[in-house]
Amino acid sequence: MESTFTYAFPAIRGIQAQREYFVSMCPMRILSRIFVFNEEEDIPPELRAQRVLNRGRLPEMVRYLLDNPTSYVFSAISASIDGPVRFEPLTEKGEGRRMGTLHVPMDARFIINDGQHRRAAIEQAIKEHPDLGDETIAVVFFMDRGMSRSQQMFADLNRHAVRASSSIGVLYDQRDQSADIVRRMVLKAPVFKGLIEMERATLALRSRKLFTLSSVYRATNSLLRDLPGAVEDHLALATAFWMEVGSQFPEWDEVREGSLAAQDVRTEFLHSHGVVLQAIGRAGNALLHQDSRTWKSRLKALRKLDWSRKNPYWEGRVMIGGRVSKAEANVILTVSAIKGAIGLPLSAEEKRLEDNIASSRTSSARQGKHGR
Question: Which residue segment(s) compose the domain that 75 sits in?
Answer without folding.
Answer: 6-159
